[in-house]
């Protein structure tokens, strides 16, 4: 589960990680109040107003702006809240901004070159260990750094049994070119950051930038935090951080009815049982000249009710020009699935306005094909993979 920057910072701070302080605001009035309160705590009258959406690259899209006084706080917050923020990580329509983080300005005026670092904590799947990835090149796209100057990206593998050890934290501070007080601060920062990652059951922390101020403080200016859904049962307070407005509505609906659905950009809807077969089906669609509109695993029980729910979800996407149903009848018998499709189709009537290609393989496949062929519905049946692909190509052309 992804959360907002301000929520991620709350989690970091609760484990002693130093952060750029701030308060979330839902309108310009609240933003001004937040700024006043921050000034009392920090003494600085400058603030940065940051759009809170689940997407990075906000700075580039005009979602992060500096306000030098309360009037500017009010103006900028009013401007950003309600806007559709388009960043390199959103779709072309962008994301609607519902709230902003009003944060202290931590880039001291007159500080000609503040040091910005990149740091992330994540699972290294090839070693089966956690890993800290870090770079001296903070504040910019890490993908660009990886491409242009890969030697400036460092990694530190961490044994989950021992956790991050002192010498590793010191190596990180050293590789970042720090010395003196800043070195000590970075060691503290990294140790607390790793502890936060572990204790919060997160699957990703990405802090870009980590800032070194001219008075040698190290702090998190940004925080992208992904929590592990499977651990949310033991973090009730984190589970409440979910912001459903940030999620794809069809995916939310699918989750509610227990279907595993991921929205994609193509024109062929797929309904498949089993994640592996779903991946293979997407390849099949591509080979036939189409693009998958979604990933959908209907799971083990493909009865009429479930098939109907799946059809309804797929058809919400008006880019869909055809639906390919690819079911392997192992535990579930093909003829039962076929009956489910026929019943769902009859139930939905005009709601189904695109051709459907059904490929059923496994137990009672022939009987299933017969059922579909004799139903009188506009459904094409296939037994072989290739046959199904050819049919998809035919209906698309
Ligand atoms: P992102 O663009 O979504 O990654 O958002 P960030 O939180 O990383 O902010 C984008 C950029 O805004 C940072 O790289 C900084 O250069 C700048 N920024 C963030 N906080 C401050 C601040 O307190 N003062 C100033 N002057 N700039 C800031
Ligand atoms: Mn950032």
Question: Please, could you describe this protein's structure?
Answer:
The longest helix has 20 residues, at 180-199. The chain has 397 residues and is of the alpha+beta class. Helices cover 37% and strands 24% of the residues. A hairpin with a 4-residue loop joins strand 7 (115-124) and strand 8. It is built from 13 helices and 18 strands. The protein has three domains: 1-20 and 109-247, ATP-grasp fold, B domain (D-amino Acid Aminotransferase, Chain A, domain 1); 21-105, Dna Ligase, domain 1 (2-Layer Sandwich), CATH 3.30.1490.20; 248-396, Rossmann fold. 40% of the residues are buried. Strands 7, 8, 9, 10, 11 and 12 form a six-stranded antiparallel β-sheet that branches. Strands 1-6-2-3 form a four-stranded antiparallel β-sheet, with helices on one face. A four-stranded parallel β-sheet has the order 14-16-17-18, with helices on both faces. Bound molecules: guanosine-5'-diphosphate and manganese (II) ion (MN).
Observed structural traits:
397 residues; alpha+beta; D-amino Acid Aminotransferase, Chain A, domain 1; Dna Ligase, domain 1; Rossmann fold; 6-stranded antiparallel beta sheet; 13 helices; 18 strands; binds guanosine-5'-diphosphate; binds manganese (II) ion
């Amino acid at each position: 589960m992804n959360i907002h920057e301000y929520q991620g910072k709350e989690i970091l701070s609760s484990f002693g990680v130093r952060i750029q302080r701030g308060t979330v605001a839902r309108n310009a009035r609240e933003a001004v109040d937040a700024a006043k309160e921050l000034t009392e705590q920090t003494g600085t009258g400058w603030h940065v107003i940051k759009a809170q959406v689940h997407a990075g690259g906000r700075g580039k899209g005009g979602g992060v702006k500096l306000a030098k006084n309360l009037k500017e706080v009010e103006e900028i917050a009013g401007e950003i809240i309600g806007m559709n923020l388009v960043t390199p990580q959103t779709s072309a329509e962008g994301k609607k901004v519902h709230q902003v983080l009003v944060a202290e300005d931590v880039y001291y005026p007159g500080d000609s070159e503040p040091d910005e670092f990149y740091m992330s904590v994540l699972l290294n799947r090839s070693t089966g260990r956690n890993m800290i990835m870090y770079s001296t090149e903070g504040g910019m796209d890490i993908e660009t750094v990886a491409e242009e100057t890969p030697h400036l990206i460092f990694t530190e593998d961490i044994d989950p049994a021992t956790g991050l050890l002192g010498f590793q934290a010191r190596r990180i501070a050293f590789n970042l070119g720090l010395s003196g007080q800043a070195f000590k601060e970075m060691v503290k920062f990294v140790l607390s950051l790793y502890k936060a990652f572990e204790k919060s059951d997160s699957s990703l922390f990405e802090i870009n930038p980590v800032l070194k101020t001219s008075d040698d403080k190290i702090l998190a200016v940004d925080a992208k935090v992904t929590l592990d859904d499977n651990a949310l049962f033991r973090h009730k307070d984190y589970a409440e951080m979910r912001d459903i407005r940030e999620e794809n509505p069809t995916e939310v609906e699918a989750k509610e009815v227990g279907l595993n659905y991921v929205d994609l950009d193509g024109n062929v809807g797929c309904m498949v049982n089993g994640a592996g077969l779903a991946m293979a089906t997407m390849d099949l669609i591509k080979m036939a000249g189409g693009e998958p509109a979604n990933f959908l695993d209907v799971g083990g029980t493909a009865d009429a009710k479930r098939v109907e729910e799946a059809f309804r979800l797929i058809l919400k996407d008006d880019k869909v020009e055809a639906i390919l149903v690819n079911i392997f009848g192992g535990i579930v018998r093909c003829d039962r699935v076929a009956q489910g499709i026929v019943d769902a189709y009859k139930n939905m009537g005009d709601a189904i306005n695109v051709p459907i290609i059904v490929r059923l393989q496994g137990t009672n496949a022939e009987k299933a094909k017969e059922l579909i062929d004799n139903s009188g519905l506009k459904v094409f049946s296939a037994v072989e993979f290739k046959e199904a692909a050819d049919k998809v190509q035919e209906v698309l052309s």
